[in-house]
Structures are given as C-alpha cells and as structure tokens.
Fold:
Amino acid sequence: MCNLKKIIPFFILVFSLASDIFAQFGKLPPFQLQLQVINGTNIPGMHSFAFAQSGDKWLFIGGRINGLHGLNNNDGFPGEHKNDKIIVIDTTTWNFYQADLNQLPKNMADPMRSTNMQYIQNSDYLYMIGGYGWDSIQEGYVTYPTLTAIHVNKMIDAVINAKPIAPFIRQVADTNFTVCGGDLAKLGNEYYLMFGHNFNGRYDKTASVLFTQTYTNRIKKFNLTDDGTNITFSNFSYLVDTTNFHRRDLTTCPLVKPDGSFAIGAYGGVFKKDKDLPYREPIILSANGTTELKTYQQVMSQYTCAALPVYDAGSKNMYTTFFGGISLYDYDAGSGLVKQDTLMPFINDVTTLSSYSNGALEETVLPLQLPGLLGCNAKFIFNRNTSSYANEVVDLKQLPIKQHLVGYIIGGIHAQKGNFGIS
Structure:
C-alpha cells in the first residue's frame, strides 16, 4: 500500500427540522441534515490534528498531510508527510496562514508535529497531550509524554502576522501523558484522558519486532491548573478495564443525559485483544467519574470520524450522527441492507445513533451520503452561533424551524475504494 496525494473534504452542515421522509433502517431523528461542499478554497489537506477556535478563526496543529499511513516499515509514517506547520484559517475569507515549527527548538517542536494527539480547548488555551511521531533527539518514533499549552488568541495573531510563536507555547512532561489515539475530555473540574496506547518504534502491520505497543486500558482522571505561567496537574486516579478499555482510534462525543447532566459517549475503537475487529459496545462516562458499558452493538462507523451531537429536551432523547469513516458494516443501496465486511472498509454513509430516554439505542442510516469515501479522522467544527448546551451539544428545542448552519466538517482521509484505497 502506498501513500497518495492528500485531499481535503470541506463541508458546511445545514440543519432543519424533519419532514416525513424515508429512512434506510431504524427511525429517523426529528431533524434533517444537508451537506454543502465549499468550493474555491486552497486550504491545506490534513488529518489527525489538534484544533481550537477563536471567533471566526481556526487553529490547527499537528497531524498528517498525506492520506492513510502505509502498512510496511518503509512507508508507515514517513517524515516528509508530518504537518510541520501551525495553520490558521480565517473563515470570513477562507484565507489561511502558516508558521513553520522549525523556528522552535526540536524538543519543543517535535511533540507538536505528532499525530493523533489528545487535545481539548479550555477557554483561552489549547491543551495537547501525547501523540506519535519522530523524535529528533532520540532519533526514533515515540509516543510523547508531553502536555503542550497554546494561548489560542495570541498564537493565531502571531501566525497571521508572522511573529515569533515560541512565547505562546509552554510544555510539561509526565509519564501519564504518554498516550496517542485516545481522547481528552473535561466534565466539571476534572479532565479525563481516555483509552489510547503507547506506541514506540516504526509502524509495521506484521513485523512487531519493529515496535512496542501498550494499550493504556484505562481512563485517567486528573486536575489541571494553569495561571498563564505555571501548569500543574494533580490527583491522578484511574478507571481500569483491561477488556473493554483496550481501544484506540475511536470517536468520542459530548452528551446530555435524560436528567440534564453532561457525559461523554465513546463509540467504537480498535482492536479487540483476540482479533482485528472493532469494539461495538458504546461506553458512557458520566460527570461523577463512573462508566456504563452499553450492551448495544454499534453497527456503523467504529473508527474516528466527524460526529454531531444533538439533544431534544422535550423527549429527553440524545442523537449522535456519524459521518462516514471506517466501519464493520456498509450500507448496500441495492438491497437496502447493511452488510458486514471484516476488512473494515471506508464508507460514505451518514448514520444517527439515537439514545432514547428509556435507555434503548437504535441506529439509522440517513437518506444522505457523503460525496466520496470520507469522514475518517475528519473534524466536525461546531458553529458557536448555534443554540447549544455548555458542552457544545446542539439544543434542538432552541433551534429555529428554518434551516440553520450548525457547523463544518474539515480534513480527514479521502479513500478511492472501500478497502486499501487511500489519498
């Protein structure tokens, strides 16, 4: 398998209340979605990055600028395809600006060039943890033990105006942060570093002698304080499950529960201990730090993809919509059925997982498809002018009846065919 040129899918996501239209299987959610492709931009292609936003400007750090990684030791994660730039996009003009990370010391720049970092924006700061990439000092591929803090507004200004970027970067290290392919969330005052693995060495699908890999098998809960100069973290505690938490490269998404409390849903992830298949049982992480493993078997989109969360306060139902990605099942329009493919193909289907107030779960293939095999490692960017809860879950009851822009989908991998087609 070889790496081909990058392509960036870029869409506006338009939302309106539903009418009585056909659903492929399952019950339609009480809204419709429309995708509008944005043409005429020259935005760089990228995926698996860290992201923050300020007003009408977006900030991207890290990730890859090619497509799917190769599966052999000579093409796994070639250095020339790492994202070596900090990228800012001005959404009022769709112009973009770049700052070269090579202006920084290697020990500071290398973690920021990594892929599959865990990240979160909290007010003025973007926090990035871990990630996998080439360590220029050790001269090898590592998972970094690093937490990097970026002042979002000041970094955006520095990139746009070609100023030095180093003053707006701070880094600390701890072995708890040696994770890639997981996720970082915040509920209340606690941060949660969820799942993932510690991968060191050159990636190869068959010759494991080239690398070491250890799944965290846990959710790490901790406190973080930041006075703008000093970053401190404390009170680490661990939720451990060597079977069900043995997952990475999944999709997580904020939730509102029927009682109005906030939670995080974790969907899919790879790989099971005994076979190269994804996890299908969703996990719900609640604000009290407890988890619930659902018995429902998720059908579609088990690998990291763009996702949109919507809550209906009237019915107390939660709707999470997944856009394409990689899936154990694929919808066959000819038969109207979903078919299993254990090679886990790229798909173009858009599906909604409904979590009803009585605890039942149900998936629906929407009468909408992506214009290609897209969505994998893409990002849904929430439009902050949309009525929402504090955790950026769309508030269905407060939306206007007419069409409304709820956000954007940007980046990711564009596959040429379902299995082993990449760009």
Observations:
- Residues 152-160 form the longest helix (9 residues).
- Helices lie at 106-112, 152-160.
- The CA atoms of residues 53 and 328 lie 33 Å apart.
- Residues 1-11, 18-23 have pLDDT under 50 and may be disordered.
